[in-house]
Structures are given as C-alpha cells and as structure tokens.
Amino acid sequence: MEIIIQPTPAEATTIAARFLAGIIAAKPEAVLGLATGSTPEALYRELVSLKLDWSKITTFNLDEYVGISPQHPQSYHSFMWENLFRHVNVHIKNVNIPDGLANNIPASCESYERKIGSAGGIDVQLLGIGTSGHIGFNEPTSSLASRTRIKTLTPQTLQDNARFFGSESAVPHHVITMGIGTILESRHCLLLAFGKKKARAIAEAVEGPITAMNPASALQMHPKVTVVLDAEAASELKMQEYYRWVYEQKPDWQKI
Ligand code: PGA
Description:
The protein is of the alpha/beta class. The chain has helices at 9-26, 41-49, 76-83, 105-118, 155-165, 180-184, 199-207, 240-249; strands spanning 2-6, 31-34, 58-61, 63-65, 95-96, 124-127, 149-152, 174-177, 188-193, 225-230. The chain has one domain (2-254): Rossmann fold (3-Layer(aba) Sandwich). The chain has eight helices and ten strands. Helix 1 packs across helix 2. The longest helix is centred in the first third of the chain and has 18 residues, at 9-26. It is globular, with a radius of gyration of 17 Å. Residues 37-39, 128-130, 134 line the site of 2-phosphoglycolic acid.
C-alpha cells in the first residue's frame, strides 16, 4: 500500500484528481470504478474543472440504495449526475450504476458483474471508507470474497447517512454493492479518507490484521493500492511519520 498523507482534505483531493487525470490522459478508454458520499465531492469538482475527455471512459459505481428511484435526490444515480456526469462528456451508455429497483436483484447483480467483465475489468476503483470500515457498502463481516449483491446496512451506517435523508428512519435499509472480491479485482484501488471520524477505521484497515470486521483491511491483499488521507484521518496510524518520509523521498517520476 502507498499511504499519502496531506495536511488538508483539499490538498489530498488535488493529489487524487491528479492521479485520475493522469489515468484518463494515458488511457482515454479507461474503465473507472466510482464512489459516492461526502469524500469524493470535491474530487469530482476538481475533475470537472480540469475539462478532461470522458468520451471513451466507462464507469461503474460501487453501490446504490434498494427501493428508491434513480430520480430520488439521495439516490446514487442522482448524486453521480449532479456531481460529475452532467458536467463532463461521458456517454450515458457507458455509465453503470447498480439498479436499486430491479425486480430480480440477484439476476441484476450477476449482470452487473458480467458487464464489468465485458468492459475489460476496472482500471481504477475509487473508494471511500465508512466509520465501520466498509468499502462500497460491504459492512463488517462481509465475505472478503463477496461479489455484487444485496446487503443490509448496519445501525452505524444508517446513523452516518441520516444527514443525507433528514432522519435515520428515512435511510433505506438495503443496498446493492459490488463485493469485496469484485473490488479486489480492479487493477488499482484509490482509497480516500478525510477527518478524525475516519481515523480508527483507517488505522485498522492499513495497520491492523486482515479481518472481515474491517472490510477495507482486505485491501492489504491487493497489489496496487493508493491511500490518500488528510492529517486527521491519518492521526491514528502508528507509522504515519514513516509514510510521510517515504512520500517525500520518492523520485519525481514515482510521485503522483
Ligand atoms: P463519506 O462516506 O464519504 O460520506 O464519509 C464514505 C463511505 O461510507 O464509504
């Protein structure tokens, strides 16, 4: 894992934007795995401002709530169109987000997995992390080999996401999420986390044992993971000074 610690979320976001812009420039037909939530909002703004060419890009989102329509203001369809897709020249046919209203959810999940395969797999998967350690909506005790499927949110995540819905009881209890096995098959994972609230989940994911109790810890098994943190999210890492030193020592060609 490469751990990059920046003083602020803004500086961390700029590094992530530079990384993704580099991928899009190097591979105009790249397949990007995208994430929602507060963490990537500024990243999407920065990517929009860079005026990149998204015409050949394919995207797969990590997850979606079950039982709310794509038009619902808090659906991840709405989030993605508001924050990114309507501002760039991506083709609608190349945008993939799990269908939270599918009649046959298992079949729809299998079809999502097949589509990722037909697109050639995901080049870069952007990830946030929940305070529970979830990636996508793979909550603690999710199988580390799991595939796209329906999941039930933990009380902690319902509480964390109540801010988007106005109250905890309005948050859908079920979601469709790519599995941890699905995420681990992407060629590069880019995990972003900001703020003190994420510090424990990050410390466990990066420096703790690999355990289904912190699904993000499964990333330790992945050959290419870049974790970009602000100082607060990094604050419980035991080896934070080492990670800072490593990044500073890198030759320019190796830095993002
Ligand atoms: P957040 O959510 O970016 O809104 O903090 C991250 C997540 O739950 O994965």
